[in-house]
Design goal:
Blueprint (H helix, E strand, L loop, with lengths): L1 H25 L6 H7 L4 H15 L7 H17 L4 H24 L5 H20 L4 E2 L3 H6 L4 H19 L1 H11 L1 H6 L4 H27 L1 E2 L7 H11 L11 H22 L2 H28 L12
Antiparallel strand pairs: 1-2
Helix pairs in contact: 1-13, 3-8, 3-9, 3-11, 3-12, 3-13, 4-5, 4-6, 4-11, 5-6, 5-11, 8-9, 12-13, 12-14, 13-14
């Protein structure tokens, strides 16, 4: 398993180096520090949301509603600002809104025993529709400069570093991390082993909503506007990063280091496509192709693993 993880992460590093090599020839300005610093501002909301997505995928679950949770949380933040709620309070309430929405997904999954795909597919549409309804499909802007400045610059980087480092430590150093992997490997066995499966899942979906609330605030600050169509397609990019980073869609496998490399590859690919061909729509095609490619590669690897000859051990009787 260690060799498989290493080969996936090494492959991502090689792909990143190839991408930068091609970019240095086709678009030398793209690889400059100034350009990379400016383009990095587009990464952090996706990077944050992808971390809890990784944990959910490790448990053999999925959350298709993260983009809609971000949109509804962002609109809630904008409406609170319009009603003169103090900005700091509005930020806290926005994170709370995201946490409640994520916890609602977890409640349906754990208490109502509905498959995560069906639950989050339904809430993807429901939350986006609620965002459209309460905002009357209009953009809400005009936030104070001090708030926008406070939520930009190094703030997203620090938040991502804290969440990513904390998640890595939890997954590698605590019983909770072992429980997450065990649930994805074999849920029924985990239940018989007295692992609190439902409680773990509830915490993970709540954590996903909390991070979506944080991402919503950062996204509003970066765009100086809140509207219902924000973060469209965010779930596709997050899932692509998770799978590309080596997590198994069948559960039981995934690492934060692989996720970070997957995020970097997706981000740099998307930005280079938009930079060179000047078409944002083309980047969506590339991201979709990356997702299909990674799933196919995973299936091929699993089939080769199953085809390996197994050495039969037979008992022999001494004369």
């Amino acid at each position: 398993m260690k060799n498989l993880r290493w080969s996936r992460e090494l492959t991502l590093v090689v792909l990143l180096l190839c991408l930068f090599g091609a970019a240095s020839i086709l678009e030398p300005k793209f690889v400059t520090m100034r350009a990379q610093t400016l383009l990095a501002t587009h990464l952090w909301e996706l990077a944050l949301v992808a971390i809890p997505m990784l944990l959910i995928v490790i448990t053999a679950g999925i959350d298709l509603s993260v983009g809609s949770i971000v949109a509804l949380s962002a609109v809630s933040f904008g409406l609170m600002f319009e009603r003169n709620v103090p900005p700091v309070v509005a930020v806290g309430l926005t994170v709370l809104v995201g946490t409640v929405l994520g916890s609602l997904n977890g409640w349906f999954v754990t208490k109502m025993k509905v498959h995560p795909l069906l639950v989050t597919l339904a809430t993807l549409a429901a939350f986006r529709g609620m965002a459209e309804g309460i905002s009357t499909a209009r953009a809400i802007s005009g936030y104070p400069d001090w708030l926008l400045n406070a939520l930009q610059g190094p703030t997203p980087i620090v938040l991502f570093a804290l969440v990513a480092t904390g998640t890595h430590l939890v997954m590698t150093q605590t019983y909770f991390g072992r429980w997450v992997v065990a649930i994805g490997t074999e849920e029924n066995v985990s239940r018989f082993s007295r692992i609190p499966v439902d409680r773990v899942k509830q915490w993970l979906y709540g954590f996903s909503g909390l991070v979506c609330g944080i991402a919503a605030v950062l996204l509003v600050a970066r765009n100086n506007t809140a509207k219902a169509d924000m973060a469209t397609g965010l779930e596709l990019e997050a899932i692509t990063a998770v799978v590309l980073g080596g997590a198994s869609i069948h559960g039981g496998k995934g690492r934060v280091t692989g996720l970070v490399l997957g995020l970097l590859l997706i981000h740099e690919t998307r930005e280079f496509v938009s930079w060179h061909w000047k078409q944002n729509e083309l980047s969506l095609i590339v991201i979709g192709s990356l997702l299909i490619l990674t799933v196919l590669l995973e299936n091929i690897a699993e089939r080769r693993k199953d085809r390996k000859p197994k050495v039969a051990i037979t008992a022999t009787e001494n004369p």
